[in-house]
Write a structure and sequence with these properties.
The complex is a heterodimer. By secondary structure, chain A is an all-beta fold. Chain A has no helices and 9 strands. The two termini of chain A are about 15 Å apart. Chain B has 7 helices and 17 strands. Chain B starts with a helix and ends in a 5-residue tail after the last strand. The chains are: A mainly beta, B alpha+beta.
Chain lengths: ~110, ~375
Amino acid sequence: MTVQLSFKFSFDRHDGFPPPAVRIWVDTDNNFQPEPNEEVTLTQNGLEWTGTCSLQGASSASVWYLVGYVASLGSKWSLEVRSNTPQDHAVAADTGSVKHLRSAFWGMLSP
Amino acid sequence: MKTPSRFGMLPALALFAGVSAVESSAFADGDASSALSVLPWNGVFLKVSDGDQRGTVEFGRNVSAFRYHLAVSAPLNSSSRVAAFTDENRLTAGASASLSISFSSILNDAGAAARVIGKPTDACRAFLAAMSAAGKVPLPTCSEDSAVYSAWLVEHANTATDAAQSAAARELGKRPVPTAFADRRFFWELGLDLLGSYDRLSVLPADAAAPEEDATKWNFRAGLAARAYWAPWFALTLKPGIEWSRSPSTVKFTRCEGVPSSSDNVTGQSCSDDALLLLASHKTVAKPYFQWALTGVLPSQTAKVTPGAELGMRWYTVGGAARQSVTLTAFLAPTIEPVVTRFGVGVEMITALADDPNGSFKSGKKWWTPFLIVGGTL
């Protein structure tokens, strides 16, 4: 069985240079390392990044993901992760205000 | 001959040319007045002639810390093809393609930030376990920027008596990414730019009545593209490279042929407005070019736009004569759009650094081109 995950990450604004960047990994092997084969290919549209990936299993429960970004101080980010199993629903969501140019954080998906 | 000074009478229109991070997109300008041409300068599209109308397809994506961007562009009508042969500024081109590949320290640093935070902390695990136990769906994150996580840390560090308390207390005030790295303001990108263009048109070899022959115009440019950013105020762009080109000197004229008539009182002509007269054929030449641009912005924490200015210079050779261009632009960059979007006004001063081989101008001649920016890339 396969679970399809959809990631959406956005900033509300930028503040000059450099252009913001976002990268996301899904820790499929559960070793808490951002590995190349675990990186979600993101498509940028303006200040929004979207991407999908597939998970082997019946649920996204307890799967960890990692987000790294470069962004303008004071801008607000928003993250939403959705799963298509058993039906389309959000499995992670949060917002934050950027305190440092470079940052990263862990998150875990709900069932 | 059509001279660059004529363009100086026209406000130029720059359109967003796409950035390395854009998703695949395709567009073609249907408005005949939207005459686009690639200004070999920051990838900006400028309107420099009413006779040039192009279609462009672009594709870009990030792979790890690398960006790549592919663009293909072609004139959409015969007038635009002719413009590529008659524009003395050589800002227009025939069918063209470009490929840019660059390494981005911005993307690399986003990855480095993810690597240096290590495994989820005990506080993070306790927080998410508590959220799960409380039936919180969807789950929040363990970001230091998250109000939910921050509030939980404070609450548990001060009130709880279990393991979560000590974990939260340890987490409070700690930086997941070392401050010296997280707050460093310098970023850079270094890449390779390849660009080529080609077109072939029929011309009349110095005689309006002579049989037509083909003339070919092409160029190939290879260079480096380096950008340095000092967040959030400045960006410096450097583009050295070499260009191989073959560009015949032609002039557009109206060519008319008499139409047979059975009466002396009736005459007629069949005319073509896009006839090209070949003035001179040039050999393929290889010339270096160099461009730089310094862009500054005044960031605001509240405004929807950031004001800025850009000073740029480039040295290049067209038609066998070296030229220098100085561009000064004032712009507003919306903060709720990609950093590459800009609106403003500018002026370009082109100075001939050598006599034109065809005698059209002398060294030192200047052309001024005011333009209006509707969008552009850095």
